[in-house]
Write a structure and sequence with these properties.
The strands form three sheets. Strands 6-7-8-3-9-10 form a six-stranded mixed sheet, sandwiched between helices. The chain has a four-stranded antiparallel sheet with strand order 2-1-4-5. The chain is elongated. The chain folds into two domains: 219 residues, P-loop containing nucleotide triphosphate hydrolases (Rossmann fold, 3-Layer(aba) Sandwich); 67 residues, Alpha-Beta Plaits (2-Layer Sandwich). The chain is built from ten helices and 14 strands. It is α/β, with parallel strands linked by helices. The longest helix is centred in the middle third of the chain and has 16 residues. Helix content is 32%, strand content 27%. Strand 12 and strand 13 form a beta hairpin.
Length: 309
């Protein structure tokens, strides 16, 4: 399958000397939701800005739908819709005029029916004659999404799209994203709400210090790197873990009232049966136990911490 976005050996160093991106190689598949995760300053926005033709690359090549973002700028950019972090728009224009003008910028013929449906999908139709400055922050965010979709792009970038918005808008947005994917639109998003990436994304990319440190299918990533923990709530607290149990690498928590055992759920031998037997032999009784699995957030934090070592 040919990539809808192909990034080859992309690097960018700003005039200050800061290396924002270092040798990025990445292919985005048609029709997928790709979540790009990384801490502040990792290079997420710089990468998106280069793909969208806002920032020039230092070196390397970016193809969008087979079009070079530098040599074939207009053809490449016409395929992209961008919802930036910042709310930027002409505040004295109406919602309808703003979205209509954005469509015209890409040379698209007028299509009032499409724009009407777009505004209805984003709960903006009743606000179509309102000026931008009259809208709430959540409504302004919806207008940015409408502008990005006005020219019917096949690729949509969402750069921290739900930062600071209400729960209702977040829910509406993700319903819209699902609908776009069903129509074949490729979605690339950055987010600080990692639970959204865990719920929505098909693949996860992690960027740290301007380098892509991992790209993986979400389910495969959870399978490979996710760990399970067994927490045993003790009848009596322990001052310390007996030396004879050191091989289990247990963690004593809750002021000695709980033991935590981390294990690989996919392994043929988890070690749980042996642990419970050894605990009984040492007279360590528990009143309750529970298991939990690492979330995508746990995995992300661990990956970033390892990349910084």
């Amino acid at each position: 399958m040919q990539a809808v976005i192909s990034i080859q050996q992309l690097s960018k160093t700003y005039a200050s000397g800061h290396p924002a991106l270092q040798d990025i190689n990445l292919d985005i598949r048609p029709g997928e939701i790709f979540a790009l995760l990384g801490p502040n300053g990792a290079g997420k926005t710089t990468l998106i800005s280069i793909i969208c033709g806002i920032v020039n690359p230092g070196s390397g090549r970016v193809l969008v739908g087979g079009q070079d973002i530098i040599k074939d700028y207009r053809a490449a950019r016409a395929q992209i819709g961008l919802v930036p972090q910042e709310l930027v728009s002409d505040v004295f224009e109406t919602v309808w005029a703003t979205v209509k003008f954005s469509r015209g910028l890409f040379g698209k013929k007028p299509n009032p029916a499409y724009l009407e449906q777009l505004l209805k999908d984003l709960s903006l139709w009743d606000k179509r004659d309102a000026k931008i400055f009259e809208l709430s922050g959540g409504m302004k965010r919806r207008v940015m999404i409408a502008k990005a979709l006005s020219h019917e792009p096949q690729i949509l970038f969402l750069d921290e799209p739900t930062a600071g918005v209400d729960v209702e808008l977040r829910r509406d947005m993700w319903n819209m994203v699902r609908g776009l994917r069903e129509r074949g639109v490729t979605i690339i998003l950055t987010t600080h709400y990692i639970e959204e990436a865990e719920e929505m994304a098909d693949r996860i990319g992690v960027i740290s210090k301007g380098q892509i440190i991992l790209v993986e299918d979400k389910q495969a990533l959870m399978h490979k790197l996710g760990k399970k923990q067994l927490t045993l709530h003790l009848q009596q607290p322990l001052a310390s873990i007996p030396a004879e149990l050191a091989r289990y690498a247990l963690e004593l928590t809750d002021d000695g009232h709980a033991l935590v055992f981390t294990f690989d759920a996919q392994s043929e031998h988890t070690g749980i049966a042996e642990l419970l037997k050894d605990l009984a032999q040492h007279g360590i009784d528990f009143k309750d136990l529970q298991s939990s699995q690492s979330s995508l957030e746990d995995i992300f934090v661990n990956l970033v911490q390892e990349s910084r070592r």
